[in-house]
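Protein details
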Amino acid sequence: MMNCVYVSDVGRVRSVNEDSTWVDRLESGYTLAIVADGMGGHQAGDIASRMTVETITGDLGGLPEGLSAEACGEQLKKAILHANESVYRKATEHAEYHSMGTTVVAGIFAGHDGVIAHIGDSRAYHFRNGQIIQLTDDHSLVNELLKNKQISAEEATMHPHRNVVTRALGTDERVEVDLNRVSMEPGDILLLCSDGLSNYVTPEQMALTLGNHDLGLNDRADRLLQLALNAGGDDNISVVLLEQHEDAVSGIKEWNS
């Protein structure tokens, strides 16, 4: 079983929270979590991210029981591609939504095993025994420069175009979804987040926070949010935490502001 919490905040600068966040246990027993970080003028990013979450949850709500994690991952990919079609169609049919889009990072779990799907620069991290590993590879301009050794890791954290994505959901008729398998052991934590967290909170800070067993899971999520706010909070911030337990009763808690 997994304990799940999420928190989403508009931040200190933005007037609208264009992130959409969702985590729950589906009727069929699978655990599903989503973070979508919208982009576009006239609050179109808010619409794109919300449409994405609604489409994915709607498509996966009727999954049959007993599927493997791999099969669940394929269904998650189909749902994300369906969301891409829906957002792209709305953007092309309504001038006020032209070029709107969203990132998405989502995880679906059948028991201990799961699949992470993502488009854009929202991220998934896996925390185990004090160590944190980034599972996703940003589809961003800065990451391309970093991989090509055109900038250093330190320069990447301060780059003026670090928010420019090279792949997004809804901006093009077709899009590629990256998939990663993950297996959770008791005590492991999966972190999904928008770049409002990852641009301001270091992996070391994340690991220290997630490893602080004096805090409940909800308090650890809130601590991560506060770290991002204290570092500037220039963007919307969304955090999902899923903690693997053997026999714990799954619960969902949220804080929105």
The longest strand covers residues 31-39.
